[in-house]
């Protein structure tokens, strides 16, 4: 249960970070209205708060989060950008998720 809760929290955290970065991208590159920066800032604040919910040391959480971020970013690539991840993208995600699992759940 801890593994599933941790993974889901990381996924929600990654979505908050990606939205917080994607909205300014839309403003800068795709002529979105400036008001998109407000939900972007709120999303990035949510991202920081969500990272603080993990009981592990901050550095360990940040390191492990990177693996799930890669997973979510490639999902974003497929669902939002319309680009299907390659076989090598999937292999890379599997390696990243394995690294996340080792970092977060190895006995200490």
Describe this structure in words.
78% of the residues lie in helices and 0% in strands. It is mostly helical. It has one domain. Helix 1 runs antiparallel to helix 2 and helix 3 packs antiparallel against helix 4 (87-105). It is flat and about 50 Å long. The two termini are 19 Å apart. The mean pLDDT is 95.
What percent strand?
Answer: under 5%
Decide which structural class fits the backbone.
mainly alpha
Number of strands: 0
- Approximate helicity band: over 70%
Uncertain segments of ≥5 residues (pLDDT<50)?
A: none
Write down the secondary-structure element order.
HHHH
Largest sheet: none
How many domains would you count in the coordinates? 1
Tags for this model:
108 residues; 4 helices; 0% strand; single chain; mainly alpha
Task: Summarize this entry quickly.
The chain has 4 helices and no strands. It is an all-alpha fold.
Can you lay out the helices and strands and say which pair or pack?
Elements: H1 2-29, H2 37-51, H3 58-79, H4 87-105
Helix pairs in contact: 1-2, 1-3, 3-4
């Amino acid at each position: 249960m801890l593994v599933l809760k941790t993974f889901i929290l990381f996924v929600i955290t990654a979505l908050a970070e990606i939205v917080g970065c994607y909205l300014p991208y839309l403003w800068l590159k795709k002529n979105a209205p400036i008001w998109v920066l407000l939900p972007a800032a709120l999303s990035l604040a949510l991202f920081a708060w969500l990272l603080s919910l993990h009981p592990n040391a901050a550095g360990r959480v940040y390191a492990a989060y990177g693996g799930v971020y890669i997973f979510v970013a490639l999902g974003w690539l497929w669902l939002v950008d319309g680009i299907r991840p390659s076989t090598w993208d999937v292999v890379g995600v599997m390696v990243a998720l394995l690294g996340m699992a080792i970092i977060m759940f190895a006995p200490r």
